[in-house]
Amino acid sequence: MADIIHEFFVKAPPERVFAMFATPDGVNHWWTKEAGGEPCVDTEFRLYFGPEHDWRANVTRCVPGKEFELQMTQAQVDWQGTRVGCRLTLEKPGVTRVYFYHVGWPEPNEHWRVSNYCWAMYLRILRRHLEHGETVEYEKRLDA
Rounded to two decimals, what is the model's pTM? Predict the structure, then answer.
């Protein structure tokens, strides 16, 4: 199996970073067009990217301010069953280390390579939003 891992620092406390991964409002700022769900284990999260990409995931880990994970249940074939999540640690006051992962890919194919690149772009938007208050329109995120 192939995995995607990105590790970086954000000048924001873990609670703010966690909200960007675990709440619909947070996720909508950097990844989805429209998300829905509660940050509670065994609940469903909706990840809407458009009519042809109305995905679902189950929350499999949720430790406020520290960890959040989704297991994809309805998505593109390569994403089915994969897990997307983060582990957060306070590096120093006001700085959070983010260990982001998307694991369980069936193989390192073209879709895996494109997704790896896209995650880097989206995570940059997340960091820029937290550190500078920047907002990028959904349709322009991969060009930012």
Answer: 0.96
**DSSP 8-state assignment for residue 113:** H
Query: What single-letter amino acid sits at 52?
Result: E
Task: List beta partners, residue 36.
Answer: 46
Contact call for residues 27 and 20 (beta carbons, < 8 A): yes
CA-CA distance, 5 to 85, in Å (whole number)?
Answer: 10
Domains and CATH numbers, the chain: 2-143 (3.30.530.20)
Pairing of strands 34-36, 44-48: antiparallel
**Per-residue pLDDT reduced to its tens digit, 1-18:** 799 999 999 999 999 999
Sign of the C-alpha dihedral computed for residues 53, 100, 123 and 21 taken in this order:
positive
Query: For 21-66, what is each residue's pLDDT tens digit?
Result: 999 999 999 999 999 999 999 999 999 999 999 999 999 999 999 9
Burial of 93 (0-12, 13-18, 19+ CB in 10 A): exposed
